[in-house]
Amino acid sequence: MSSRLNDYDFELPRDLVASRPLAQRDASRMMVVQRQSQQIEHRSFRDLPKFIRPADLLVLNDTRVVPARRFSDDGRIEFLFLERLADRRWRCLVKPGRKMRLGARVEIDAVQGSVVDVSPTGERTIEFQAEVDMHAGGSVPIPPYLDRESDDEDVVRYQTIYAQNPGAVAAPTAGLHFTGDILRQLPHVFLTLHVGPGTFQPVQSENIEEHRMHAERFEVSAETANKINSAERVIAVGTTCVRVLESIVRDDMTVSAEAGVTDIFIRPPFKFRRVGAMLTNFHLPRSTLLMLVSAFAGRDLILRAYAEAVQEQYRFFSYGDCMLIL
Fold first, then answer.
1. How far is it, in rounded angstroms, from Cα 73 to Cα 320?
2. 135 pLDDT exceeds 90?
3. pLDDT (tens digit, 9 = 90+) per residue, 172-221?
4. Which CATH superfamily is domain 5-65+142-325 in?
């Protein structure tokens, strides 16, 4: 195991970052990584059903990305509205922060608001003089590394086909590959975790044990919990599902219906108790998501797989290809 940030780094050519989705969701490539044999093979996402056994169960995140990115009426302040805290009160990120110190005022849709709190992590609580729907007229907050404005294509494609519960500011991207036809072939259930902006938060500490994860809200229904408990192997679709499942598993390896928040930081040498396999995209260097998959499959195997993905010209990050870890 390693707690050094530099040990989770790799070289990635810029042209391998997928800036746009493929024309068809299920046309992505899928690298299959076998933990026991250490073997790597190259398949298509459409081959996923071939790897699913009769007693398996896929767990997917049905959160829905909200159009949370907005600007002040004068265009000078950019907002990412994260959560409605109470009547007329919102928690948000702002840019540039120096213009939104405690007591600063701003107008959105001709309604004045003022900063009433600044958290240690830089989030602002803004209280408005009247109720405003901060997601009306907003845009999809696509990842910053795409280095472009969102457009009509992102409204559809930066959303899973099964997205139901609004609340995320980033998509659970492992689910973007699924079509209705493929999903109908597979035994599956849904949970909800509202992905927050911390999914893009870089690790600042060279000792990763000093990093503190963002908290995200989740909900697991009784029906989902019962099916998970009856499954022989649970396949988590995306790191968001991994984090929920490993947060709520009990000593007897079962889970129960639960709603709450999780700030679990999964990194080597974490011992997984409920997740038996994982479908995930290719993650950023030095990210907590890369650390999570390294904990699941072993850092050496994951970095070897990533090096092979670069060599084989896989597409990386949110709109990129995927990896099935068995």
1. 35
2. no
3. 999 999 999 999 999 999 999 999 887 767 888 898 988 888 889 999 99
4. QueA-like (3.40.1780.10)
Cis ω on the peptide bond leading into residue 96 (within 30° of 0)? yes
Specify the domain boundaries for CATH 2.40.10.240 within the chain: 69-128
Q: Which sign does the torsion angle of CA 173, 178, 179, 180 carry?
A: negative
CB neighbour burial string for 163-180, b if at least 16 within 10 angstroms, e if fewer? beeebbbbbbbbbbbbee
Question: Which residues are CB-neighbours of 45 under 8 A, at least 6 positions away?
Answer: 26, 27, 28, 29, 30, 177, 182, 321, 322
User: In the predicted model, is pLDDT for residue 282 greater than 90?
Assistant: yes
Question: In the CATH scheme, what architecture does the domain 69-128 have?
Answer: Beta Barrel (2.40)
* CB of 103 closer than 8 Å to CB of 124: no
Q: With 90 as the cut, is the pLDDT of residue 140 above it?
A: yes
Question: CATH 3.40.1780.10 occupies which residues in the chain?
Answer: 5-65+142-325
